[in-house]
Design brief:
alpha/beta, 14 helices, 4-stranded parallel sheet, 8 strands, single chain
């Protein structure tokens, strides 16, 4: 099986280690991974801001770039939701406006092959224990798109629960938004900051070493608030935890400082 990695803009620009972790994890599970270099933004910022016609060329490009792969794996609930839901709506609108049904067909075909990382692991590969080792207490923040749009349910928690050495701590108000929301944070900064502060306090109360999520954008926001508060918990993408092994941890501990 060969899959395409849709790494997303935030990971590519700010958290490249997340993309590398996905490749490490999938290859360890026997999955071949390609990285189509023609990939760009999925168009979610434009779509969410109301510029939906501007997002259409990006949707068409995405469909072309990822054509021919068995599956497209996305380490982001929000970008996966854009492909699965946003593209469908773009296609339906284009067809309703009399601009043809080509975009709708492309969107449906791509959506049928696109999976957020935890969906791919649990639903396609049928694995929960991926051989990971992460000897730390961790709390999990269920990002809004994964929780409400994709319906990830307990897939991320199943995967975390099978990680050796990991102690999963409960997060108070876990299902509440962290306040990032993409352009919401720019348009409503005061509200966004207050929501982030609430989330950060709950992370601190958990006593966890790390706060984990399936979206780097949420971790960017939560991590920024934690950093400004001088808090100890660190933001870590789920892929990085699942890619971690006992050998990695031992090597890191033995490395000269």
């Amino acid at each position: 099986m060969r899959v395409a990695l849709f790494v997303t803009c935030v990971n590519d620009t700010l958290y490249p280690g997340t993309g590398r972790a996905v490749v490490t994890l999938l290859e360890r599970l026997g999955v071949g991974v390609d990285f189509p270099e023609g990939q760009t933004c999925c168009g979610q910022p434009q779509y969410n801001t109301g510029y939906r016609r501007v997002a259409e060329p990006l949707a068409r490009r995405c469909a072309r770039v990822f054509a021919g792969y068995d599956h497209v794996v996305v380490p982001s609930g929000s970008c996966a939701a854009m492909v699965r839901e946003g593209y469908r709506r773009l296609g339906e609108k284009a067809e309703a406006d009399g601009r043809g049904g080509e975009l709708a067909e492309m969107a449906m075909e791509l959506a049928s092959r696109t999976y957020e990382l935890t969906e791919f692991l649990v639903d396609v590969l049928g694995v929960v224990d991926v051989g990971a080792y992460y000897p730390h207490p961790v709390t999990y923040h269920p990002a809004c798109h994964g929780l409400r749009s994709l319906g990830l349910g307990d897939r991320p928690r199943q995967l975390l629960g099978a990680v050796r050495g990991l102690e999963l701590r409960e997060l108070r108000g876990a299902e509440e938004c962290c306040g990032f929301g993409g352009t919401f944070a720019l348009k409503n900064p005061a509200v966004s900051a207050a929501m982030g502060a609430d989330k950060a306090r709950n992370v601190e109360e958990s006593g966890a070493y790390a706060v984990c999520a399936v979206d780097s954008s949420c971790l960017l926001h939560i991590g920024g608030v934690l950093s400004r508060r001088g808090s100890a918990p660190r933001p870590v993408h789920l892929a990085e935890i699942l890619a971690s092994t006992e050998e990695n941890v031992r090597t890191a501990r033995e490395a000269p400082r």
